[in-house]
Amino acid sequence: QESNPKTVFSTTDEKVTLHVRFEYNVVASSQRFRAPWYEPSGQAYVAGAVGTIFGSNRDLIVSLKMADSPAARKPGRWRVDLYYKGEIIVEHAFEVK
User: Fold this and answer.
1) Which of 44, 59, 75, 84 fits 53 for a cystine, CB–CB 3.0-4.6 Å?
2) What is the rounded distance in angstroms from the CA atom of residue 30 to the CA atom of residue 72?
3) Any bridge partners for residue 77, and if so which?
4) Is the pLDDT of residue 48 over 80?
5) Most distant CA pair in the chain: distance in Å?
């Protein structure tokens, strides 16, 4: 996982991105991963697409569109969870201001 993930975003940022780097090659198929985003109310907002970095079997990226999207109208403390084969492996909270 990133050593210093960003935790505060602006409603005008293009997107919020979570970049996870694994210690070992695990990213053979991004279909095994799921990344739901939760808005400040705790309600599920959307399950984002899980992408990979070309040429890497250790890096995953999940992004949430922010600027000019409904998410930009929901400031507060958000959360994104990353699941692998149905098990939660990363929980990341961040602030949208």
Assistant:
1) 59
2) 27
3) 95
4) no
5) 38
